Amino acid sequence: MTVLTPGSGAVLQSSQKQRGVLLMLNLAQLQNLIKRDPAAYKEEFLMQKRNFDSELEIFKLKPGKQSDRFLELVTFMSHVSACYAEECSQLPLSLLQLLESQASVLHPDVREKLFQSLVLMRNKLLIDPLLVIKLSFRLLAVNDKALRSALSDYIINDIKFINQKKQNDRLNRSIQAFLFTIVSEDIAVTAAKSVHILADLYRRKVWTDARTVNVLGSACLSPLSRVMVAAVKFFLGIESRIQEDDEEDKAAAGSVEINYHEHSKKTRKRQRSVQKQEQKNSKLRRGLEKLEEGQGHGAKPLFPAIQLLHDPQHLAEQLFVRLRQAGQRFEVKVLVMDLVSRLVGCHRLQLTGFHSFLQRYLTAHQREVTQVLACLIQACHELVPPDDLLPVVRAVSANFITERCSNEELAVGLHSLREVFMRVPALLREPDMADLVQDLALYGRKTHKSVMAAARGLVNLVRDLHPTLLKKADRGRHHDPHCLPAAYGQLPVADGVDGAELLEAFERGDIALDQHGEVLWGPGKHGEEMDMEEMEEEGEGEGEGEDWEEASDDEEE
Of the candidates 342, 433, 526, 553, which lies 20 to 30 Å from 189 by C-alpha distance? Predict the structure, then answer.
């Protein structure tokens, strides 16, 4: 039994005051106690909140100065804000406004701590994620490399988390609309970083819709060269990067490193361990194959990014205007050439003057000439007028396929012309094309293997499309002398539906289908023909070795 002395009440009050002072000074301990029992320590929290409000007003007077006490209070308030949601309803907005207005003058440590506190409160659903993501994109303009890296990681991971279970179209649309304005701004760092973030989200298959692709397409027309190059590289190499990521994921998920004990003693226990690891590997591979088969039926198809553009003709025209302007590095011009040629070839566009523009770079001594030739081939399709390509073909033959050229140049030129003829067969109907083709066919007698193979490939193509252009010795035995490539603008007209005769025969009962869906001929017309053939074969077999007499008219009567 405790006996209270006259001074015991004062001692108890003093101990409570000491405890309050200690908790005031030790914020980490108070934070731990509040998380365990928020109601019991609400008074201490309110006292710390008043301290935070006063420290915040003092800090706003000199935002460039570092304040350790203010940072401690910010950390404390962000951790316990979920316990007192009503009292801390304005805390996220106050920190967001401070970062938005004073980000450029804040100390790097203060900036980092404030942003971490906002992310913590966003994870506790105390602030709208759209506000934090918009602030993150604005903070990319701050000259702080570490902060930019942290902001990029946060944006990518947060958007990936938002769309993890299902696509949040409302939030995605708001972010993409905001990104369109960011990319159109004149701040190079922010726009370039935004393009990299969008490309990374597409590569990770988080945002693969047409809106994302068209925002990147608008970035290709940015007046800032850094932004334009980043967007152009996205369209040129995103599919290969996605394929590489898929292969790495398959290799990581479908194999376990096996210790074969190559440099240790071979024992039965180690042999059993190796066998178990191999069995585990095979089981993982079988599971991965089943998963891929299951995803192949219901998975959402991932189209190439260049096919999702809404107005490829406008994009190609504007890029071609930029390409013809002076003042750009040659490496940037090659990138733009590549994208324009892919747009023309993929969407079958008409871009007047593009092929003649490429002609000026088609010389053997030109830097990156093979890439320029690849651009020429990509930009060829059936709807390109042969009159536009004929000067280019003559330039290739004059600069790459002559006796003064090396074997490598000859092979490159012959391969290039073969690809152009394959994509635009109407070129072979142009006048004086017979002389050019016959001259090119003579290089099939070269002793160099690559030149001979390239020339023979060209001859085989012309033999299939327009054999009369070749000399009689090069046409082959079984060529069709009446074979001609389709004229420019001529399209084959279908007079029926392929396979319609099978449907009619099935409706008449001439054919039937087995349980596997294969066609079985029934007792109709085709069945009678087969029966007649079988009867003829049987008659031939029975007639072997027997003498047949011709019946006279009298005997028939």
Answer: 342
Query: Degrees (nearest 5) of the Cα angle 18, 24, 27?
Result: 130
Alpha-helix residue ranges (DSSP H) falling in 401-521: 407-423, 433-441, 449-465, 500-508
Phi, psi of 85 (to 5 degrees): -65, -35
Backbone dihedral region for residue 154 (phi beyond 0: left; psi -120 to 50: alpha; all else: beta)? alpha
Q: Average pLDDT, stretch 26-50?
A: 90
The torsion angle over the Cα atoms of residues 307, 310, 315 and 317, rounded to 10 degrees, is: 100
Torsion of Cα atoms, 62 then 68 then 70 then 76, to 10°: 160
Alpha-carbon distance 492 to 482, whole Å?
17
Residues 6+ apart with CB under 8 A from 512: 506, 519, 520, 522
Task: Please report which residue ranges of 220-266 form alpha helices under DSSP H.
Answer: 225-253
- Of 242-251, 450-459, 525-534, the one with minimum mean pLDDT is 525-534
CA distance 15 to 18: 5
Query: Which alpha helices (H) appear in 81-168, and where do they start and end?
Result: 91-102, 108-123, 129-139, 145-162
User: Smallest Cα–Cα separation from 182: which of 191, 193, 173?
Assistant: 191
pTM of the model: 0.76
Residues contacting residue 123 through CB under 8 Å, at least 6 positions apart: none
Q: pLDDT higher for 442 or 277?
A: 442
Angle at 146 between CA 142 and CA 147, to 5 degrees: 45
Contact assessment for residue 350 and residue 380, using Cβ atoms and an 8 Å cutoff: no
Separate counts of helices (H) and strands (E) for the chain:
24, 2
Q: What is the largest CA-CA distance in the chain?
A: 158
